[in-house]
Amino acid sequence: MSIISEHGFRMDGRRPAQIRNINTRLGLNRNAEGSCYLEHGNTKVLCAVYGPYESKASKRLEDRCAIVCQYSTTTFSGLERKNRPRGDRKSTEISRLLEKAFESVILTESFPRSQIDIFCEVIQGDGSNLAACVNATSLALADAGIPMKGIASAATCGIVETKPIVDLTSREETDLLPRVTLATICGRDEVILVELQNRLHIDHLSVVMDAAKATCADVYECLAVVAQQHLKACAPILGN
Amino acid sequence: MEVHISDDEKLFLISGVEQDIRNDGRTCADFRTIVLERGVLSGTNGSCRVQLGQTTDVLAGIKLELESFDPAAEKEAKQPMSFHVDFSANASSQFAGKGGDQYGEEISAAFQVAFSRSLDILPNLSKTLLAEGYRWKINVDLSVLQWAGSVPDACSLAIIGALSDLEVPEVEVAPDDGGKVSIVLKRPRTGGNMRDEEVPVAMWKLDVQSCPMLLTVSKIGSANLVDCSPEEECCIRSQLLIGVAKNLNVDDYDITCIKQHGGGLLEMESIQDMTELASKTAGGLYQAIEKRLKTEEKRKPGHSFLL
Fold it and tell me: Which residue spans traverse the membrane (chain A)?
């Protein structure tokens, strides 16, 4: 089955430049400083932020705080059952990508000698898992009240016969389709994460990057609304 | 989440439970409020989410797998379920990395023991055996999303919920060349103008009214408690993991597993008392689950369960 039908629709009925519905809930984990549950359609991610707290000697940095990320997926999250929820090569790679991305978003100099833990759990994976994790983490950090340069937003985009498609599902994330995951701050021109999978012709690169940037801005709009609504809901507790 | 409470607080808690009053107003045999939702994950064959007292949060997902095995190697039929408990780092930063693996494996092993005779206990589980050498393997995976005590209890409720939600496809087994068999999904024709592969596959469900459950019974002071909160878990002298299964023939309860957990000393008589408390509690839980499973409204697939 082709990814875009002759009438210009995708398998789930979306247009090429349309993202899936984003649903969120903030602050559901009582043990964590900040937490977020986020859905991109059928991709469901849970993120918790612990800290900043005094870090262990091995991780301590004198001038800024250390960011520790852990990405794991439940064994039943994908199409096939996995044996291990974390520790495989792909999860470790995604953990490192998230770590590096959020090191450049969080104002790490504000918390010298401390540590912030970010834990992402993919409850159900239906494509764009890394992008969903970035979005969930941004909101969880905002919920924890950790100072950031802005809210980071991410999107995964692919290209089919010179046409970009955004927010891929797992059925669209095939082995041949080139896909780019891009994360920016506040939907502006500040890229914090970029990852390309599979082979892409260099002429198509700018097309995909433009589509990804535009999608990041769209996703940012959604996340900003969520953060503002949450702040409004918390206003009586904060006392103003 | 690590809990630190002072000696005086512990003393208050212990003398309280010895008079059958707990800090949150429960008696020793009471459970916290249980929230049970089924059909929460569209990507699984059966799923369930259980919350205990709004803080312990467990998600169970079942994936079916067609497994081939060597019948000559198994003296008696092996039960088809396998359990895996994973502590998500979301629950507490102490579970990050390999932090939760040991406790998770301990609980998984206890479930494996509690369910070891499930072919005899669950009335229609033997239907998962399809043909000589082929069976449905039921992978039950649990993810602990939030932790506030009594994880095994929450897990066993989630397992029962997920097993009752599980839909197993009906298959037709036909002999094939070379002594092998061919297994084809059963698609009953109901008329209408549909191609064969568009007819929905017939499904059957497990009967879970006698499904084993694993309960923790803890000794605090001289009292026995079920469903401990994190503060109470700090004061535990010794804890037993007790597997209880309803016996449908004599209307009583069978003990399928007893495991001491976390060290400590126990007298023989205490073990007797604790298993009695477990089977009494199980009676209440079976009733509550039965009621819930009957009255729960069917959700549309893919609804947002944590919202």
Answer: none
Nearest CA in chain A to B95: A119
**To the nearest whole angstrom, how far is the Cα of A54 from the nearest Cα of chain B?**
13
Task: Residue B42: count other Cβ atoms within 10 Å of its Cβ.
Answer: 14
Residue B3, token pair as written in the block = 């809990």
Identify whether residues B180 and B51 lie together within a single domain.
Answer: no
Q: CA of B122, closest CA in chain A: separation in Å?
A: 24
Q: Measured between CA atoms, how close is A124 to chain B, in angstroms?
A: 7
- Contact yes or no for B140/B60 (Cβ under 8 A): yes
Does the distance separating the beta carbons of A23 and B304 come in below 8 Å? Answer: yes
Query: Are B279 and B222 found together in one domain?
Result: yes
Structure tokens that stand for A167 in this block: 């927010």
B271: in domain: yes
Contacts of B88 in chain A (CB under 8 A): 46, 72, 74, 85, 119, 121
On whether residue B302 sits in a domain, the answer given is no
Contact criterion met (CB < 8 Å) for B96 and A119: yes
Kindly report the CA angle at A127 between A121 and A133, in degrees rounded to 5?
Answer: 35
Q: What is the ipTM of this complex?
A: 0.90
The Cα B81–Cα B20 span in angstroms is 38
Q: Could you read off the pLDDT of B229-284 as tens digits, one per residue?
A: 999 999 998 999 999 999 888 888 999 999 998 888 899 999 999 999 999 999 99
Q: Under an 8 A CB cutoff, do A25 and B307 touch?
A: yes
Has this prediction a pTM greater than 0.90? Answer: yes
**Structural domain count of chain B:** 2
Is residue B144 in some structural domain? Answer: yes
B43 and B126 inside one domain: yes
Binary contact (B89, A48; C-beta < 8 A): yes
Task: Look up the CATH number of the domain holding residue A206.
Answer: 3.30.230.70
CB-based contact, A32 to chain B, within 8 Å = yes
Cα–Cα nearest to A88, from A69, A68, A67, A72: A72
Residue B1 lies in a domain: no
pLDDT, averaged across chain B: 89
